[in-house]
C-alpha cells in the first residue's frame, strides 16, 4: 500500500487515474508471478522429495560376505524346518493312489470283472421302442457318413 500512497502524492493535482491503475496492475502482475513461481518451486521440491524417496527404496542393504553367510545359514535352517514339517504332513495325510491300492490289495484286480459278470446288474432293453424305425428317413448316404 505504501507504494500507492507515494504514487498518489507524486501525482497530486494531475489526472492520475491511469497512472494509479497502471501501478496497481504492475503490482498485481508481480504478485501473481511471485505466487506462481513459489507454487512451481514447491511442486518441484515435492517431486524431488518423491524421487529421492523412490531412490532410497532401491538402495537397500549392501551385501558382504559376512552378511550373505549369515543369511544363508538362516535360510538353510528355515528350509530344513519347512521340509521336516512338510514330510510330517505328508505322512499324516497321505492318501493312497489308485495304483497303490491295487498293489496292496490283489482282490481289487478281479473286482471289476466280477461286477461285469454278475447278472444282477444286467440292463433290460425295451425293444418296443425300436419297432417303429420306419418313421426315420435314413438314406444309405447317411449310413456311410456314420461309418466314417
Entry keywords:
148 residues; mainly alpha
General description of the model:
- The N and C termini lie far apart (103 Å).
- 72% of the residues lie in helices and 0% in strands.
- It folds into two domains: 1-60, no CATH class; 65-116, no CATH class.
- 0% of the residues are buried.
- By secondary structure, it is mostly helical.
- The protein has helices spanning 2-10, 17-59, 65-92, 98-104, 107-117, 140-147.
- The mean pLDDT is 81.
List the helices and strands and how they pair.
Blueprint: H1 2-10, H2 17-59, H3 65-92, H4 98-104, H5 107-117, H6 140-147
Q: How confident is the prediction overall: mean pLDDT?
A: 81
Count of alpha and pi helical runs: 6
Distance between the termini: 103 Å
Low-confidence stretches: none
| Count of the separate structural domains | 2
Number of strands: 0
Q: What general outline do the C-alpha atoms trace?
A: elongated
* Computed CA radius of gyration, to the nearest angstrom: 48 Å
Helix-strand makeup class = mainly alpha
How much of the sequence lies in strands comes to under 5%
Largest sheet: none
Helix content: over 70%
What's the order of the H and E elements? HHHHHH
Protein name: ZC3H15/TMA46 family C-terminal domain-containing protein
Organism: Pinctada imbricata
Region (Disordered): 127-148
Keywords: Coiled coil
